[in-house]
Amino acid sequence: MTMRVGVVGGGQLARMMIAPAVELGLEIRVLAEQEGMSASLAATQVGDYLDLETVRAFARDVDVLTFDHEHVPQPVLRALVEEGVAVHPGPDALQFAQDKLVMRARLAELGMPQPDWAAVASADELQAFLDDHGGRAVVKTPRGGYDGKGVRVVSAATEAEDWFTALAEDARGGALLAEELVDFTRELAQQVARRPSGQIVAYPVVETVQRDGVCAEVVAPAPRATGRLAAEAERIGLTIAEGLGVTGMLAVELFETADERVLVNELAMRPHNSGHWTQDGAVTGQFEQHLRAVLDLPLGDARPREAWSVMINVLGGPADGSLEDRFAAVMADHPRAKIHTYGKAPRPGRKVGHVTVVGDDLDDVAYEARAAAAHFAD
Ligand SMILES: Nc1ncnc2c1ncn2[C@@H]1O[C@H](COP(=O)(O)OP(=O)(O)O)[C@@H](O)[C@H]1O
Ligand SMILES: [Mg+2]
């Protein structure tokens, strides 16, 4: 019988699960937030993932429930698990990707290296943290942030006043996350896939470049990653996946410091932008791997197929005309480039697609990937 995967959320991550699902002969269904979303071609239902009845009805006809994002509330997830629905990643793991304070506390228990941090419930507590950390720090809203929204570098507690006001108005109360401002030399990401029955594989650690809080480029594997650095990143990824009981794809965002330490920034329990290169550059792409993992099927080889892969995000798209208008030009000029678009309307800064080039010379691959992506940008 055909295995059926249900994906909650209709964004581009759900969309990019569709092709490998078709190739593997799986049935994929998407619960989309609205009509016309990125993954609408597999959307069998449109509805609100906050509503238990809606998600329950969607889950009834699938063998496993997984996600395009981390926002399905814990009570909804727990109710489904109690009713016998296979939910991967499950709520016990997912809580650590839903709340950065909960994550920091658990990673401390696991002995993972991370920036100095504190839960700050008031401006006074934030000021005390600032005073202890040279007068500058990063403040984050623990829940719901993405692409740098919910992250602020501050040098005075007053700069987070609006967030403390919002906290005071939130019935759940709680605190903000204060972190030491890490003087990193670069950002890295480590991906791991894990099956419910325990099999686990690690991808090579990659370098990510963010601009304005948004991932702009990924180079895989991370250049100049010494054996020690790569091994440490892998150890962190495997320890977190096992320690938190993650099922499916896990991405661990990391900071590398000048003294070659690696610190954990945050976690994502789903396919991740830092792994888009795997579609064209690895033996098993992360979207296929996620499907295999959540279905508890044997995992695929996570090694690169070529020496280097460079992935460039297309943000916003062309000011005039559509992305599609640029296709022919990119294809003509860059036959090596693999073009991925998400069926989303271009808006400034919005992730609407990406371009990947793979090959054996890093300078050449990076140059071509950037040149191909630039066609879409201007
Ligand atoms: N403690 C920190 N020190 C320095 N830079 C940070 C710190 N935390 C986050 N950043 C920067 O902000 C970006 C977004 O922060 P992150 O916690 O990953 O939020 P998001 O959930 O929006 O991705 C990071 O990729 C990094 O560039
Ligand atoms: Mg991040």
TrEMBL record:
<feature type="domain" description="ATP-grasp">
    <location>
        <begin position="104"/>
        <end position="295"/>
    </location>
</feature>
<comment type="function">
    <text>Catalyzes the ATP-dependent conversion of 5-aminoimidazole ribonucleotide (AIR) and HCO(3)- to N5-carboxyaminoimidazole ribonucleotide (N5-CAIR).</text>
</comment>
<dbReference type="GO" id="GO:0006189">
    <property type="term" value="P:'de novo' IMP biosynthetic process"/>
</dbReference>
<dbReference type="GO" id="GO:0005524">
    <property type="term" value="F:ATP binding"/>
</dbReference>
<feature type="binding site">
    <location>
        <position position="140"/>
    </location>
    <ligand>
        <name>ATP</name>
    </ligand>
</feature>
<dbReference type="InterPro" id="IPR005875">
    <property type="entry name" value="PurK"/>
</dbReference>
<comment type="function">
    <text>Catalyzes the ATP-dependent conversion of 5-aminoimidazole ribonucleotide (AIR) and HCO(3)(-) to N5-carboxyaminoimidazole ribonucleotide (N5-CAIR).</text>
</comment>
<dbReference type="InterPro" id="IPR040686">
    <property type="entry name" value="PurK_C"/>
</dbReference>
<dbReference type="GO" id="GO:0034028">
    <property type="term" value="F:5-(carboxyamino)imidazole ribonucleotide synthase activity"/>
</dbReference>
<dbReference type="InterPro" id="IPR011054">
    <property type="entry name" value="Rudment_hybrid_motif"/>
</dbReference>
<dbReference type="GO" id="GO:0004638">
    <property type="term" value="F:phosphoribosylaminoimidazole carboxylase activity"/>
</dbReference>
<feature type="binding site">
    <location>
        <begin position="265"/>
        <end position="266"/>
    </location>
    <ligand>
        <name>ATP</name>
    </ligand>
</feature>
<feature type="binding site">
    <location>
        <begin position="179"/>
        <end position="182"/>
    </location>
    <ligand>
        <name>ATP</name>
    </ligand>
</feature>
<dbReference type="GO" id="GO:0005829">
    <property type="term" value="C:cytosol"/>
</dbReference>
<feature type="binding site">
    <location>
        <position position="100"/>
    </location>
    <ligand>
        <name>ATP</name>
    </ligand>
</feature>
<feature type="binding site">
    <location>
        <position position="187"/>
    </location>
    <ligand>
        <name>ATP</name>
    </ligand>
</feature>
<dbReference type="Pfam" id="PF02222">
    <property type="entry name" value="ATP-grasp"/>
</dbReference>
<keyword id="KW-0658">Purine biosynthesis</keyword>
<keyword id="KW-0067">ATP-binding</keyword>
<comment type="subunit">
    <text>Homodimer.</text>
</comment>
<dbReference type="GO" id="GO:0046872">
    <property type="term" value="F:metal ion binding"/>
</dbReference>
<dbReference type="InterPro" id="IPR016185">
    <property type="entry name" value="PreATP-grasp_dom_sf"/>
</dbReference>
<comment type="similarity">
    <text>Belongs to the PurK/PurT family.</text>
</comment>
<keyword id="KW-0436">Ligase</keyword>
<protein>
    <recommendedName>
        <fullName>N5-carboxyaminoimidazole ribonucleotide synthase</fullName>
        <ecNumber>6.3.4.18</ecNumber>
    </recommendedName>
</protein>
<comment type="pathway">
    <text>Purine metabolism; IMP biosynthesis via de novo pathway; 5-amino-1-(5-phospho-D-ribosyl)imidazole-4-carboxylate from 5-amino-1-(5-phospho-D-ribosyl)imidazole (N5-CAIR route): step 1/2.</text>
</comment>
<dbReference type="InterPro" id="IPR003135">
    <property type="entry name" value="ATP-grasp_carboxylate-amine"/>
</dbReference>
<dbReference type="InterPro" id="IPR011761">
    <property type="entry name" value="ATP-grasp"/>
</dbReference>
<dbReference type="InterPro" id="IPR054350">
    <property type="entry name" value="PurT/PurK_preATP-grasp"/>
</dbReference>
<dbReference type="InterPro" id="IPR013815">
    <property type="entry name" value="ATP_grasp_subdomain_1"/>
</dbReference>
<dbReference type="Pfam" id="PF17769">
    <property type="entry name" value="PurK_C"/>
</dbReference>
<dbReference type="Pfam" id="PF22660">
    <property type="entry name" value="RS_preATP-grasp-like"/>
</dbReference>
<keyword id="KW-0547">Nucleotide-binding</keyword>
